[in-house]
Structures are given as structure tokens and as C-alpha cells.
Specification:
By secondary structure, this protein is an alpha+beta fold. The chain is 21% helix and 33% strand. The longest helix is centred in the C-terminal third of the chain and has 13 residues. The model has no long low-confidence stretch (mean pLDDT 96).
């Protein structure tokens, strides 16, 4: 089961958990209200997993590849890690399925506070188009993940501020509609 919490404001190593004191846990329902969806799958059978195939078919995730993020495997590792951790948004959903290792997705809540989502083997997440977010490895410095897309992949990240994009406007409107 996914674990998420509000982050502290510490400038320490981004790979640390950064929990507030006391810890403020965030549940799946609160993530769903932000448009973030989560599944727990069996990463050992990702190549022939009927549950993964069902999700891909239902959500039209037609394209996929696998990325390994670690010093030995990712060209320009240090530069990429900095880029992934820069606050940004995409014009399409971001879908990631962790096959090995672990890391953190940080997303902004309705009040612009950071929520840290711990992702490990078997976790699959969808971040909606227009949500401000970032990614970092944890202290193990390794993750292997499947990247999924609807149609052809679009890799463009727009660093904050990027409020002028339609995807951001639609996301903000979605947040206003889900505000309880």
C-alpha cells in the first residue's frame, strides 16, 4: 500500500523522507481528490500481468518503455536527477510503474503544500496533466520504472511557473470542483 505524507521545509538531502513532526499522513482518498491515482501490482509478472493489461486498455495507455535511474545506467545522471526534482508540470498525464527499487513523487496539494508519495516495487501511479510535481530517488539511489503514455510519448516538462497552459487551467478547475 502506498505511503504519503506532508513534507517538512528542510533543505536537507532531497533523497531523505522529509516527514513533518508530527508526521501528517495523506491517504489514498486525499490523493484521488488531487487527481492522483494508485494501483498495487505484481511487478514480478509485469510482462504478462492481466491486471496491468486491463488498466492499460481501460485508460488507453498504448505506449510504454522502461527506464533505469541510477549512476551506472542513466546517461547524464546528475543533470537528470536535478531536472526530475525541478518543480514542473506536463500537458499529459504522467504514469509510472515501479518494477524495482524506490523513490518519491512530490505533488502540490490544493493549498500549494508538498505531499511526498513513497513509491516502491509494484506501485503504479498516475499524476494528472497540469499538476505541479517532481521526482527524486530515495537514499538507495536506484529505481527501474515503466513509463506509460496515451499515444506517442511527450517528454516535455514545463517548470513552474507554467500557469498559462490549458492543462494547468483545467487542473485548477478540477481542484475547485473537488474542493469539499
Amino acid at each position: 500500500m502506498v505511503e504519503a505524507w506532508y513534507m517538512d521545509e528542510s533543505p536537507d538531502d532531497q533523497r531523505k523522507p522529509h516527514r513533518t513532526e508530527p508526521n501528517r499522513v495523506v491517504g489514498l482518498e486525499q490523493l484521488r481528490q488531487l487527481g492522483v491515482f494508485y494501483w498495487k501490482l505484481d511487478a514480478d509478472k509485469y510482462e504478462n500481468d492481466p491486471e496491468l493489461e486491463k488498466i492499460r486498455k481501460e485508460r488507453n495507455y498504448s505506449w510504454m518503455d522502461i527506464i533505469t535511474i541510477c549512476k551506472d545506467k542513466l546517461p547524464n545522471y546528475e543533470e537528470k536527477i536535478k531536472m526530475f526534482y525541478e518543480e514542473h508540470l506536463h500537458l499529459d498525464d504522467e504514469i509510472r510503474y515501479i518494477l524495482e527499487g524506490s523513490g518519491y513523487f512530490d505533488v502540490r496539494d490544493k493549498d500549494d503544500k508538498w505531499i511526498r508519495i513513497f513509491m516502491e516495487k509494484g506501485d503504479m501511479i498516475t499524476l494528472p496533466a497540469g499538476i505541479y510535481h517532481r521526482f527524486t530517488l530515495d537514499e538507495k539511489d536506484y529505481v527501474k520504472a515503466m513509463r506509460l503514455f496515451v499515444g506517442e510519448p511527450v517528454w516535455t516538462a514545463y517548470n513552474r511557473p507554467a500557469d498559462h497552459f490549458d492543462a494547468r487551467g483545467q487542473y485548477v478547475k478540477f481542484l475547485a470542483q473537488t474542493a469539499g
